[in-house]
Structures are given as structure tokens and as C-alpha cells.
Design brief:
By secondary structure, the chain is α/β, with parallel strands linked by helices. The chain contains 10 helices and 15 strands. The protein has helices at 7-13, 55-64, 81-95, 111-117, 140-150, 190-195, 211-214, 229-248, 274-277, 295-300, and strands at 17-23, 45-47, 50-52, 69-74, 100-105, 123-126, 154-160, 177-181, 224-227, 254-255, 261-267, 284-287, 290-293, 308-314, 321-326. Helix 2 packs across helix 3. It is elongated and about 75 Å long. Bound molecules: iron/sulfur cluster (SF4). Iron/sulfur cluster binds at residues 26, 28-30, 33, 35, 74-76, 106, 127.
Length: 327
Amino acid sequence: MAIIPASGCTFCHEGAKMVLFITGVCHRSCWYCPLSRERKGKDQVYANEHPVSSPDEAIAEAKNMRAKGTGITGGEPLERLDRVLWYARRLKEEFGPGHHIHLYTSRAPTEKELSDLTGIIDEIRMHPPMKCWKGIETSEYIRSAEMASAMGFETGFEVPALPEIDLLIPALPHLHFLNINELEWGETNAPEMRRRALVLEDSVHNAVEGSRRWCRNICRHEKVYLCSSAFKDSVQLRKRLIRIAETTARPFDEISSDGTIIYGRIEGALSVPEAVRELGTGMFEEREGALETAWWILVEQGDEIEGTKAIIERYPNRGIIVEVTPL
Ligand code: SF4
């Protein structure tokens, strides 16, 4: 198994890191930007998949998943430095100094910015845009990384796997780690991907074909870690969903091996059907104008239950609906 050079990744591997998306605003326009249409350019905070408007709401989400740390991302978080400090400070106050916080930025933070972040952010992950990779050794990113290390931050780069990735080899002696994300196809970068004749590796994941091959050489270095698209989906996201489901699932919600929850929904019932009532208190709930209960009672005794019935699979804690199966 590959060694994980960045401390922030350890909790991420357990699915125990909350993703705090601080803003969709960003001054750059990287052709490979993976942001969705929903988030790109919008000044909205999300804690995992949920829009939030205060640190207290983010803390509630962190509690839902028993988070051991937080990854602050964007957009460009430093476009909203005060907001970063507000949220990160509250998270540290609530969960203690051991709650590990890493910050992504596409900027080379200044001495003033670094000093504002000291004691609140543990790890800085800079993303020098690709156009800065040539001559990286003499760039402001290396100067900033060295300053950050001297000030006590764990410091590294986090970049997508692009054909030019070996240009970052001279940066390695100046960093604690280099994280490489497998290049991912998304709704907003698809036109650029096609223009460059790139294609998807398979029909299951978003990984772009060739992406892992481009970083084969640089990945031989002990400070380099490649985070694959499949890993993000099948381990990182899955484990995070399971943690949230374990905390928030109702007695009748079934937790799937993917971390989604499965329950039954009845619409148009005038009262709680007898078969559902017999399951006992806590085994049904009225939500959003429908009755929700164990999915299996609708399958086993559906003939005795009036109304429009369906099995719902969704992310836990009222997350996105993955599948609706009418009965
Ligand atoms: S810096 Fe990051 S958020 Fe901004 S355009 Fe580039 S990839 Fe997207």
C-alpha cells in the first residue's frame, strides 16, 4: 500500500474528513477545473453536500459524520479569507486543536495571509496553475511554501494529473508532499477535454484515460501520492457516507454497503396504515407530505397499504436521491 505523505489525507482515508467548500468564486479559469455548474462562481458555502450559512451549521454536519478533521476547498478560499478564519476558528473551538484542518488554495499565500492562518490551519495545499509549472523552482509558490513550512504549517502541492506533471519534480525538495488527483471529467470541463481529444477511461468512473500513466515517473518519489478517481468514490466517499448514516439513520432506514439509506415512502395515505402502525413507534415518520417507513413492509404487505408506494435510496441525512423504485 502506498505511503500517505500528507497528514490531512489520513482522516480522509477513514472518511472522517468533512469537506468545507468555502466559496465557488475563483479568479482563475483552469481548463481542467472540476467544479460543477451548480457551484462554479457561486458564493455559497457547503459542508459536504449541504449548503450552509454559518459555522454552527457546518459544526452540526461535522457532528453528523463524527469528523476528525476538515478540508477547506473551493473555488478560491483565499478570496474569502475572513470566512475561512471564521469557520476554521469555530471548528477548532468546538472540536479542539486536534481537529485537523487543511486548506486548498490556488494562490501562493503571502506572509500576512500565512500569519492570519497560523494556529487555525494545520496544512496548506497549494495548487499552482499549470501555466506556472515550467520554472516552478523560482516561482512565488516555492517561496510561499518555504515560508509556510518555516511558520509551522505542513506544506504541499495538490494538482491534477496532467501530461506536464514531471515539470513539478524540482519542487519536491521544497515540499512536505505532493498530492496528485487523477484527472476527472466533469460537466463544465467536458468541452475542453474533447477539444484535447481526451476520453473517459471507462463508463463507471470519471477518470480520464492516460492520467495515471502521465504521473508514473513522478510517483516513484516518496513525497508523491496519487489519489485515484476510483478511490475517491469507492473508499473516501463511501466511508464518509457510512459515518453520516450511522449517526443519522432512523430505526427503519436500512444502511446499504455504499453508505446510502433505503426506506419506503407512501404518498396519499389518509392515515397511518395498520400494517405500518404495528411496526411500533419510531418505525414511521411523516416527512414532506408523505409517510416514510421500512421499505420491506411495503414489499411484504403492499396489498394492504393504500397510496402511491415507492422505495427510496438516497445519501444519508436527507442527501441527494439516488434511486426511486415505484411499487
Ligand atoms: S484554481 Fe481551482 S477552482 Fe479555480 S479554476 Fe482552477 S481548478 Fe477551478
